[in-house]
């Protein structure tokens, strides 16, 4: 957020970092972002945001042939196989989806489960959603806060309504404000089941606390559904054994795959395939994005 960036700038200033080493420029993306992307004296742009905005950044950066590293949108699959601990995997997946009110680029927003277990999965997911309270983050008992602004709230509401209209089964939540909330950009924690690959809520990044549950007849179809997306930022796999989870994880076309509920490893590279971006953050690979390779020959020349 802008506030956290300001605090970071103050820390660097108080630590004695020389002027000009770090500069903070506040402003809207279409103005400040466009100017930075086009500026000939800026050698690299590292951008985090939507795929739509990332495309615009890349276009504006192209005339100066500057390096562009991007971490963009996602519609990450969470594959839960029939031999997984269903209660643990489903409950964990729902809670992970609702983190940050669903406003995480790597959120496990598509839960892919065995068709035969759809009703059982939906019941577990509903139980978690019903215990998830949206409201003032300062209030005791609140689980998730609001989404970022009115525009995002309206978009989420439209996609929830679209899911209902296209025939998905609404398991929990739905359109409108949460119970007991009469203002603000709060979204009801929402679960859809029986979602098919051609539905809008299965294709578009919602960026809110909305989980879609999709069924697959077998492991091969689960992998196919997982990869049937223009995005490729993250993936998640739960299975009866880590060996089976690893086998499926290798087949998912995403920059980061977490097995058996494991958290992100901050020293590992983070970034996407396909329209989820290029380049990597975190770890050694993240540092190397900001470096140029230079060769100097002739030290031993006669």
TrEMBL record:
<dbReference type="InterPro" id="IPR016160">
    <property type="entry name" value="Ald_DH_CS_CYS"/>
</dbReference>
<dbReference type="InterPro" id="IPR015590">
    <property type="entry name" value="Aldehyde_DH_dom"/>
</dbReference>
<protein>
    <recommendedName>
        <fullName>aldehyde dehydrogenase (NAD(+))</fullName>
        <ecNumber>1.2.1.3</ecNumber>
    </recommendedName>
</protein>
<dbReference type="GO" id="GO:0004029">
    <property type="term" value="F:aldehyde dehydrogenase (NAD+) activity"/>
</dbReference>
<dbReference type="InterPro" id="IPR016161">
    <property type="entry name" value="Ald_DH/histidinol_DH"/>
</dbReference>
<dbReference type="Pfam" id="PF00171">
    <property type="entry name" value="Aldedh"/>
</dbReference>
<dbReference type="InterPro" id="IPR016163">
    <property type="entry name" value="Ald_DH_C"/>
</dbReference>
<comment type="similarity">
    <text>Belongs to the aldehyde dehydrogenase family.</text>
</comment>
<keyword id="KW-0560">Oxidoreductase</keyword>
<feature type="domain" description="Aldehyde dehydrogenase">
    <location>
        <begin position="1"/>
        <end position="296"/>
    </location>
</feature>
<dbReference type="InterPro" id="IPR016162">
    <property type="entry name" value="Ald_DH_N"/>
</dbReference>
């Amino acid at each position: 957020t802008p506030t956290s960036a300001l605090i970071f700038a103050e820390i660097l200033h108080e630590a004695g970092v020389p002027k000009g080493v770090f500069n903070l420029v506040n402003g809207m993306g279409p103005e400040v972002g466009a100017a930075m992307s086009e500026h000939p004296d800026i050698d690299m742009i590292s951008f985090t945001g939507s795929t739509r905005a990332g495309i615009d950044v890349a276009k504006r950066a192209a005339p100066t042939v500057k390096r562009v590293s991007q971490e963009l949108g996602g519609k990450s699959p969470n594959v839960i196989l029939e031999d997984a601990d269903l209660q643990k995997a489903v409950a964990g997946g729902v809670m992970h989806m609702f983190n940050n009110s669903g406003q995480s680029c790597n959120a496990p927003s598509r839960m892919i489960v065995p068709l035969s277990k759809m009703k059982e999965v939906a019941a577990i997911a509903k139980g978690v959603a019903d215990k998830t309270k949206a409201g003032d983050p300062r209030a005791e008992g609140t689980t998730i806060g609001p989404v970022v602004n009115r525009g995002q709230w309206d978009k989420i509401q439209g996609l929830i309504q679209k899911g209902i209209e296209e025939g998905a089964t609404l398991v929990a939540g739905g359109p409108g404000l949460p119970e007991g909330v009469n203002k603000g950009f709060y979204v009801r924690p929402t679960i859809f089941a029986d979602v098919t690959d051609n539905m809008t809520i299965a294709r578009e990044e919602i960026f809110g606390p909305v989980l879609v549950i999709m069924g697959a007849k077998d492991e091969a179809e689960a992998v196919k559904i997982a990869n049937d997306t223009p995005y490729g930022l993250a993936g998640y796999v739960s299975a009866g054994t880590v060996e089976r989870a690893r086998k499926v994880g290798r087949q998912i076309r995403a920059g980061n795959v977490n097995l058996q509920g494991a958290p992100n490893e901050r020293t590992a590279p983070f970034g996407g395939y396909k329209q989820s971006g290029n380049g990597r953050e975190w770890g050694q690979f993240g540092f190397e994005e900001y470096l140029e390779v230079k060769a100097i020959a002739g030290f031993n020349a006669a």
